[in-house]
Amino acid sequence: MRALLPEPINNVSDEQLLERYNSAQRPFVRFNFVSSIDGSAQADGLSAKLGSKGDQRIFALLRRLADVIVVGAGTVRAEGYEGDLVSAEDREWRTRNGLSAHPALALISAGLHLDPSAEIFIQSPVPVIVFTTVEVTDEQRESYGHGVELIQVSEGEGGCDPKEVVDNLTQRGLGFVHCEGGPHIFGQFMAAGMVDSACLSYSPVVVAGNGMRIAAHARQTFQRFSLNHLFEEESMLFCDYRIGQ
What we know:
CATH architecture: 3-Layer(aba) Sandwich
Helix content: 25-40%
Structural class: alpha/beta
Radius of gyration: 18 Å
Strand content: 15-25%
Number of helices: 8
Largest sheet: 10 strands, mixed
Mean pLDDT: 92
């Protein structure tokens, strides 16, 4: 992998990538998506077919930096998310750098349409935080068990209010927020002005079809980002766009 911007570097190391993707800002809300040339976030209904070894490398390193991984209920149902979300090497790096061994895990499910017996709850190595707009009953809390914390937040445009979600996480000391989808969650956070970094991996393929874009929202939002850095490997581009720079 090579860096193209802001200055060229050949054979970029993991530490150089981590330095470029890191941020001292808190709260800092990042979204990570892979996209085809023609703007699709999916091939055959999943994002995996658009990826590459380089994309998987960036994906893992972004998780390494995070205080908390945030994901929507739809993405959980489609992609899984069971068990450890970082490798032993990632956990060692995090511990060495003053972070918890495994990032916290937070799910967004406005209607609380998540099966309490789902593997994500059973296999997660850390307690799971679930944000919802539903008025949570004692019975529901009991059904999810002690390893799951249900948090009711206000309803925003089409789902849980993004600012309340980020404020809650920041108050817990989880200010580096790494979001992995899906498109509806990204659209809601964009509409609320709650995205600081958009990390996009552009796959050199054209998909066509009816695959969803990386951001989906009923209302158009227009926000200008600046390119913080750009990497390339095997014709795939890895971009970190940041707002307010």
